[in-house]
Amino acid sequence: MTTFSDPPPASGPPNQPFNLGMLINDTRYRGYTFQFIALIALIFFFGWLVSNAIYNLAALGQDINFSFLGQPASYEIDQTLIPYTSTDTHMRAAFVGLLNTLLVAFLGCITATIFGVLAGVLRLSKNWLVAKVMSVYVEIFRNIPVLIWIVIISAVMSQALPQPRAFRGEDATATMVLWDSVAFTNRGVYIPAPVWNPGSGIVVAVFVLSIIGIFVFRRYAKNLLFNTGKLLPVGRISLAIFFVPTLLAFFVMGRPIGLDYPELGGFNFRGGINIRGTLIALWFALALYTGAFIAENVRAGILAVSKGQTEAAAALGMRPNRIMSLIILPQALRVIIPPVISQYLNLTKNSSLAAAIGYMDLTGTLGGVTLNQTGRSFECVLLLMLFYLLISLSISALMNLYNNAVKLKER
Amino acid sequence: MSDTHASAAFVRTEEIPPSPPPVSEVGIVNWLRSNLFYSIPSSILTLLTAAFIYWLSSILMPWMFNGVWDANSIRDCREILDGAIGGCFAVIAERWPQLIFGNYPNEEYWRAVLAFVGLFVALAPVLFFKLPRKMLWFTGLFPFIAYWLIWGGSAWVSVMALVGVVVGYVAFKALEERSFFGAIVAALFATLLFWIFISPLAVNALSSVVALSLPQVESRFIGGFMINFILGTSGIALSLPLGIALALGRQSNLPIIKGVCVVFIEFIRGVPLITLLFVASVMLAYFLPPGTSFDLVLRVIIMITLFASAYIAEAIRGGLAALPRGQYEAGDSLGLDYWQSMRLIILPQALKISIPSIVNIAIGLFKDTTLVSIISMFDMLGMIQGPILSSTEWFGVYWELLGFAGVLFFVFCYGISQYSQWLERQLATEHR
Predict the structure, then answer these.
(1) Does A343 fall in a domain?
(2) Angle (nearest 5°) at CA A242 between A241 and A247
(3) Distance from CA of A195 to the nearest CA of B (A)
(4) Would the CB atoms of B275 and A352 count as touching at under 8 Å?
(5) Where are the transmembrane segments (chain A) (predicted)?
(6) Which among B36, B289, B398 is the nearest to A127, CB-wise?
């Protein structure tokens, strides 16, 4: 009777010779076979795509080369962070666009975080009216496409605001706000520009040092609390460090930093900084839209901390705001941060919708005007993707570092 | 002694009727106190919010309720309003067909409407699993019917496409016993071969016998909210299987397969959708064999499907990772092979876990279909920004049109999210 004999050992007897059938039937080799086939198929697929591309480009008399980046761009960009004229190269135009993308992403992320945290916390408020208003905000902004928001706010900026000439004359229909320093016009918002006189460097240096000082102080206060149990009024002292030294330095140096107010001259405002309506539209649309998503993440994060934690802290005699800052937030942040990072990434990628309203970001310059002028769609789209990929990867790398710092340390 | 005690004692024999609670503890006063004015900061917040609501509605209400619904142009609207504040909603009434159907020929609207109604019939058994399962047959047939209804042309194209799928299914059934994966590959090959080699001949032959065709509508005439719907539904439907395959590939222990999947997912997730749409509109033509030209709508569907599948793959990966190890081990201990344990044990649970995120992706994708307006397709937003706002009659009617588009998207997206919450409650199997 051989029916109940042992099965052959899983690793296979060493004396069994290798045959071709084992490539399919033996689990040890099957994986390699499949991968090999997949690799070959992939190489053929890409080879097919590339050969098609080469053939098509040759048929159109084109080639792939990036020399167009060195040619003069000959188009204007209205919102620039670095000096740029239309005689500069396409490369510089693309760089200006990249900086504009980063600018709107940076401003948008900060504003979205503020909106999101406010709305998320207020949605959990005991105050019925506030909680309801915040859930209406979240639902409305989450369920309407961001592109529609961008177009709506851009229409507000360009259609609903007065023309600069409305500010002129005796019977001006529009006035500047905030002590005649900010003008909302349909050509953008004019705000005062800082003027750096000699000696301003010292004020800035003092300001930077006091910021560092705040971090050092908070660390010291934390150690003091953990080691001796002594509690310092951290908030008030931080506030003092933030303002007092800088203001002192400002007046000691003889007020070196002034403001250049925008003034109406001729047909338009002169002086100050002009923030274009397109930038504001993109910035606020993205911030409000992403803020609604962040609000949900914040709410979920706070709800994820079990109620027992609050009660335990209360039983120890902690005051509500200390419970929030020492018990709830550190635990909630671990839940909140990963999804908020992907919201930052989404915001950055959504900033490419600038193309719809004519804000000259990376998509507007490299993927828009440059592409249309030079007809180099292949190279432009490739570079565009590469830039966005780089931005995305670096944001997620940076944020993962932070995430690792706050995540639960388990044994 | 005892009777003095008895006389001094007082024992109440009847209950005092309950007295009403103090005024401050009941009714609207108590509600206001405990919900709106329970502390000084809260009172301030309440007053600020109320002021904000009053300000917003004082702007919006006259505009909405004083609106003009019957006029031929914005000048007519202004004349009727005569300086008063009010929206010019007449544009929505007049351009309604354009907003919904784009430039689809007037006399063929019934086809689009039929396809739209059919979509809901087809979706019903998928969305509400208590409906009779027989309805799924219609769901299977619907893509072919909808294609024929919307694009028109010979019905035999759709029929042959369907026959190709049936051929694939037969091949799959024939080989399923031997190897699940091999059967899938064979079925795909069979379908493709049928579509490429047999169906063009068959379509020609059959059309010459019985024409059975609707007037053809070219893709460039399809627009408005209809194209948002077409792109959204087909994008999600097609990206689900691709997403599952990518998620499994990413979890696989075969390094090359895993690597390919990781690179694909990270690449797609790292670039904005708009660059992929640029690829669809300007670059994809380069990669196709010379002489072939894809329809723009088809190219956009391909790119949107690739885009959504990367996100869905991540959602499903989350579901796969959330399953306890014991479930995988249970499959192994039952002696199931990889595909069996995936199909019978792992994927049903993983998909259930990932329903909320898949629905979020679906909503996001539906909203993102407005992006095609940037590559000059006339979806709803493209229609508003292009033909309607640039027409002389309606130049300057921004708020009404954009508000209408917003409301329409809100209704659908909010509906989907409410549905997903209902579904989550239905599928909750753990006892709490």
Answers:
(1) yes
(2) 95
(3) 37
(4) yes
(5) 32-50, 93-119, 140-161, 202-221, 233-253, 273-295, 381-402
(6) B36
B256 interaction partners in chain A (CB closer than 8 Å):
35, 38-39
Residue A67's domain comprises: 59-144+277-373+382-410
Count, residues in chain B: 432
Task: Report CA Rg, chain B.
Answer: 30
Chain A residues close to B371, C-beta within 8 Å: 147, 353
Write the DSSP symbol of residue B222: B
Token pair, residue A335, equals 């839940």
B-chain CB neighbours of A344 within 8 Å are none
Is there a domain that residue A161 lies in?
no
Mark yes or no for CB contact A147/B373 under 8 Å. Answer: yes
Q: What is the crossing angle of helices A90-123 and A329-350, to 10°?
A: 140
The ipTM (two decimal places) reads: 0.88
Whether the CB of A127 is below 8 Å from some CB of chain B: the reply is: yes
We report the CATH number of the domain holding residue A72 as: 1.10.3720.10
Query: How would you classify the pairing of strands A273-275 and A188-191?
Result: antiparallel
Q: How far is CA A239 from the centre of its chain?
A: 27
Q: What is the pLDDT along chain A (411 residues), one digit of tens a residue?
A: 344 444 555 554 555 677 777 776 777 777 788 888 888 999 999 999 888 888 888 887 777 778 888 888 888 887 788 888 888 888 888 899 999 999 999 999 999 999 999 999 899 888 899 999 999 999 999 999 999 999 999 988 888 888 777 777 666 667 777 677 788 888 788 888 888 777 788 888 888 999 999 999 989 988 888 888 887 788 888 888 888 888 888 888 777 777 777 777 766 777 778 888 889 999 999 999 999 999 999 999 999 888 899 999 999 998 888 888 888 888 888 888 888 988 999 999 999 998 888 888 888 888 888 888 888 888 889 899 999 999 998 988 887 888 777 776 665
Domain presence at residue A127: yes
Considering only alpha carbons, which residue of chain B is nearest residue A36? B256
Give the number of domains in chain A: 1
Token couple for B43: 């009172």
Contacts with B38 from chain A: Cβ below 8 Å: 126-127
Domain annotation covers residue A200: no
Determine contact: A27 vs chain B, CB below 8 A: no
